[in-house]
Amino acid sequence: MKISSECAPCVYLQLMRTLDHQKIPDQRAIQAEIMTVLGAQWETLDNPGIALNMMYKIANENTGADDAYVEDKRRVNRLADRYWNDHPIALSDIPARVLYAAAGNIIDAGLGMPPDEISQQVEQAIAEGMARDDSAQFLNQVPKRGTILYITDNAGEIIFDRELMRSLQYNEWRIHVLVRHQPFLNDVTRDDIGSLHLEEVCDEILDLGDDFALWRVDFHDTRSFGQRYDGFIIKGIANLEILSHRRLPAPALFVYRAKCPPSSRLAGVQWNGNVAWLQD
Questions:
Q1: Tally of structural domains, the chain
Q2: 42 or 214, which is more confident?
Q3: CA-CA distance, 228 to 196, in Å (whole number)?
Q4: pLDDT at position 212
Q5: Closest to 206 in 3D by CA, of 185, 223, 173, 229
Q6: What is the DSSP letter of 143?
Q7: Do 162 and 224 fall within a single domain?
Q8: Rounded to an integer, what is the distance from CA 182 to the centroid of its chain?
């Protein structure tokens, strides 16, 4: 998804959230540095994910933070786990599990929201159903016993991703899971997975090392992905921004909640709809 003028307020909002979360009393100097760097390069950036990465890196360098969201991620993972245990879905019901995974994208660790309010948000998002669901079409294109690379996004929703993976594995697809290596906002990292039991539902858990960032993926990388994988499930807005305008070498299903106008236009749905969009 190419960067647009609508992306600037979202990047600044993430900056404010990150600095507030790190309890920086006077944020103006850091804000000025980040806005200067981004402003100088804005017109040349390939996608909004690059801008967010630059913002987060500069903020962390100025504050000395490593993983500012680690406790928040653990909290929302426990909350989502409890929600799943209270609202289980049949193992064979892939469409319902796709809905949970898409609706779970509403969870946003680090906002300080009370557990009851997070649960209510998730419940309301699930009750809305899918605004667009191409998951059946996607799975028809992926051969049985083929390998799907599941690219993860945020904490909290990873619990619903795990249960979708469990269903896919039960239905004889092989699942590889890609997590981030370095902390990035509230995304799932290699350090987070020990308590998530992902090893129960996938054949391999991988990250691509210290220097890996999806926005650096080029044509040769995607070709090598195509030699290993028969399909991709790609979670969340950041990964949508980074990968949706790239031609991937196998069927790609983007699963997310359309939190902004560009992401809703891409799938042809109303703002804040639950989406499973098969890349055209």
A1: 2
A2: 42
A3: 25
A4: 43
A5: 229
A6: P
A7: yes
A8: 14
| pLDDT tens column, 221-273 | 656 666 789 999 999 998 898 888 877 889 999 999 999 899 999 999 999 99
Rounded distance, CA 135 to CA 139, Å? Answer: 6
Measured CA to CA in angstroms, residue 150 lies from 87, 154, 187, 235 at distances of 23, 13, 14, 8
Can you tell me the distance from the alpha carbon of 236 to that of 225, in angstroms, rounded to the nearest whole number? 19
CA distance 272 to 121: 12
pTM: 0.86
Domain carrying residue 38:
7-63
> Is 137:268 a contact under the CB 8 Å cutoff?
no
* pLDDT tens per residue across span 1-43: 677 778 788 878 777 877 777 777 788 888 888 888 888 888 8
Round to whole Å and give the CA distance between 45 and 39: 10
Banded pLDDT at 49 (limits 50, 70, 90)? confident
Task: Find the length of the chain.
Answer: 280
Whole-angstrom distance, CA of residue 87 vs CA of residue 27: 42
Angle, CA of 151, 49 and 6, to the nearest 5°? 125
| 131: CATH | 3.40.50.10880
* 186: nearest Cα among 255, 251, 133, 109: 109
